Amino acid sequence: MQRVALINSGCANIASVRYALLRQGVEVDVTADPERITSADKVIFPGVGSFDYALEAVQKSGVVEAMRSLSQPTLGICLGMQMLAEGSAEGQKQGLGLIQGRAQRFVDAPGRSVPHMGWNQLNPQGDDPLMRGIEPGAYVYFVHSFYLPPSPYTIATCDYGLPFTAALRQDNFWGCQFHPELSAQVGAKILSNFLAL
Asked: Is the confidence at residue 18, as pLDDT, over 80?
């Protein structure tokens, strides 16, 4: 049975992600211990809340250095994906720099409130294994005010008044701006795809 390290950043929606992984039949190790993270088969980095606060929490635990050494498949979820990037307009701290890009804030507009909250549609790009079997227009669940613009690393977009990166991959690092653990069968399929990498 493969072991998944679920990084405990102190501000993440750990319980929902853990239960979604347990339903996939894997061993889940909720941890901030660098050695347990680097020895896992897969790593998941969830996050909710404030960019700077979450980064400070993982920096204190030594998780940042461990993550920079990872060669196994690693998935950032929501704020976790943004923290993998170079930075965010939300905070002053530098991100981990494991994927290119900086998160920007949605601008309030008629018919587009911030945060972007609720179900919206994916538009897969290319043929990345994380998106295997996910049809264009599949619905997933979002809760976020900041986003990464589309880039060469984008593997799925979503539209919320403008196109933004819904999922990406750079080397062994994947990211989902949406919450696969809250996205019903589509989210379960994406987690299954990640575990099969």
From this structure: yes
